[in-house]
Amino acid sequence: MMKFAKEYLIMTLGLAVFVFGWVAFLNPHEITGGGIAGLASVIHYGLPKIPISYAKFAIDALLLVFGFIILGRGFGIKTIYCVVMSFVLFHFMPMIPGLVEFSAGIEENLINALIGGALSGIGISIIFTQGGSTGGTDIVALSINKYKNISPGRIYLVCDSLIIISILLLPDKSLQDVVYGYIEIIAFSYAVDMMTTGSQQSVQTLIVSKKNREIAQQLNETSVEGSRPVYSVQWALQDDQEVLMVVSRKNSSNEITKLAKAVDPDVFMMTVPVTAVYGVERKSQ
Questions:
Q1: DSSP code, position 24
Q2: Which residues of 188-208 are buried (b: 16+ CB within 10 A; e: fewer)?
Q3: Contacts of 30 (CB under 8 A, 6+ apart)
Q4: Per the CB 3.0–4.6 Å rule, which of 24, 60, 187, 193 could disulfide with 83?
């Protein structure tokens, strides 16, 4: 029960951050973006009497029914919860005093698009970490991919592009508004990538120490993956010197640094990003 409650609490927090990005930075300046929230915003900008919350919930509900017919019961209760809770937040969050005027001091729409996109991306990433989904274009991508061999990423790009371009149907909008929409998508995508894969990025740590063997043994005992001694020549000292190469996840680099300094306070280390890692990871023996 505690795990269940924690997951839904974190998802609710993610939804609140996601909705806050729209309510405080995007909607007050009539900036659109991707996803069903973007489509609902375009509908609201053209027909102000239709609240974004109702427009988004109606589209999400239709897509859920469509998804159940095409894909079966693969969404789970978390998707339904996120759809319902996003409706509640989109409906009631603008009623919080001062929230809609939160970004009133930021007159440049470029900044509002960047902040709003980043916040919505962070919120969605938090939801993803708990196995949740807001449905929307995810259902469209999965449904098309079931019958056509088209990558989901391409489907997302086409859907989001059509949603952003649709703002030109409104009489008071121009190409500049389309540009702001694409800026929102870029900020959103970057935030999602950093939140979901940033800590999973691989890094390479080179360790030069007279106690490399002890450090490697400690790494094995603490289950830090990918430690392997390699042989090189330290030209500065003109003598042979072992260098320990450790390939690990980015979020493990601090642990590796602390461990190496604990074994040898005079250790020399260098950590650099790794673009790709091939082969089976092995630990030093």
A1: I
A2: bbebbeebeeeeeebbbbebb
A3: 41, 45, 173, 177
A4: 60
φ, ψ of residue 67 in degrees (nearest 5): -65, -40
Q: Which residue has the tokens 């609201």?
A: 44
Alpha helices in the chain (DSSP H): 2-21, 35-46, 52-71, 76-92, 109-129, 137-147, 152-165, 175-197, 212-221, 253-263
Q: What is the pTM of this model?
A: 0.71
Cα distance between residue 167 and residue 46, in whole Å: 9
Report yes or no: 140 and 153 within 8 Å, Cβ to Cβ: no
- In this structure, of 6-15, 123-132, 170-179, the range with the lowest mean pLDDT score is 123-132
Q: Span 70-77, mean pLDDT?
A: 67
DSSP SS3 for 235: coil
> What average pLDDT does range 45-54 have in this prediction?
94
In this prediction, residue 74 carries a pLDDT of: 54
